[in-house]
Design goal:
The chain is mainly β. The protein has one domain (30-177): Electron Transport, Fmn-binding Protein, Chain A (Pnp Oxidase, Chain A), CATH 2.30.110. The protein has 3 helices and 12 strands, in the order αβββββαβαββββββ. The protein has helices at residues 30-34, 78-86, 99-106; strands at 39-40, 42-46, 52-56, 59-63, 68-74, 88-93, 122-124, 131-133, 138-150, 153-165, 172-175, 178-181. The protein has a 7-stranded antiparallel β-sheet, sandwiched between helices. Strands 1-11-12 form a 3-stranded antiparallel β-sheet, with no helix packed on it. Strands 7-8 form a two-stranded antiparallel ribbon. Strand 7 (122-124) and strand 8 (131-133) form a beta hairpin. The longest helix is centred in the middle third of the chain and has 9 residues, at 78-86. The radius of gyration is 22 Å and the shape is globular. Residues 1-27 are annotated as: Disordered. This is Oxidoreductase. Keywords: Oxidoreductase. Residues 34-181 form the Flavin reductase like domain.
């Protein structure tokens, strides 16, 4: 090996330029900091005797083989009890024009049980019977395979039984305490709460 002027004949690693020193403007809570992390928006649903839906952005893919996803739900939330009872859940990935659907399932004043689905268009999942939000970008039906503790939340790991993609291309996002969207959203909102 030819010597290029460094010890052992290897080139020294180039140092990256240092960013300018910047003072932190103020202390922030974890909630304020995490609000700067843009996420997709889903409606998490579970079937069972009562059924329940909840807007959620603490959701991600975990593994492709086997196909696993995870979602995080507060232990005090009604959804926690419903998933534990049903042993399955579904995820509807919301489209850019489904802000009102997201708001509906985030509103603690909505009806309980199956009645909360009367305000939206939905279909019954083929594998679990769990309500799936019509007009979403994608849907996953999952069997609950593991539950991990995570402070005041539980981490639910689901094995994907069925994955379906819708036809839209504009996704609903949540950033800085506001809903945003990618792409172009149609002028009329077909998927809004009636």
């Amino acid at each position: 090996m030819a010597d290029n002027g460094s010890a052992g004949g290897h080139r020294p690693i180039a140092r990256l330029p240092r960013p300018p020193t910047q003072r932190l403007s103020r202390q922030a809570s974890q909630r304020e900091v995490m609000a700067q992390f843009a996420t997709g928006v889903t409606v998490l649903t579970a079937g069972g005797r009562d059924g329940h839906g909840m807007t959620a952005n603490a959701f991600t893919s975990l593994s492709l083989e086997p196909p696993l996803v995870l979602c995080c739900v507060a232990k005090a939330a009604r959804m926690h009890e419903v998933i534990m009872s049903a042993r399955s859940f579904a995820v509807s990935v919301l489209a850019g024009d489904q802000q009102e659907v997201a708001r509906h399932f985030a509103d603690s004043r909505r009806p309980r049980g199956r009645a909360q689905f009367d305000a939206i268009e939905w279909v019954r999942g083929r594998r679990t019977g769990t309500p799936l939000v019509a007009g979403a970008l994608a849907w996953l039906e999952c069997e609950l395979v593991k539950v991990y503790g995570g402070g005041d939340h539980s981490i639910f790991v689901g094995e994907v039984l069925e994955a379906t993609r819708g036809v839209g291309d504009s996704a609903l996002l949540f950033h800085g305490g506001r809903f945003e969207h990618t792409g172009t959203v149609p002028a009329h909102d077909k998927k809004a709460i009636s």
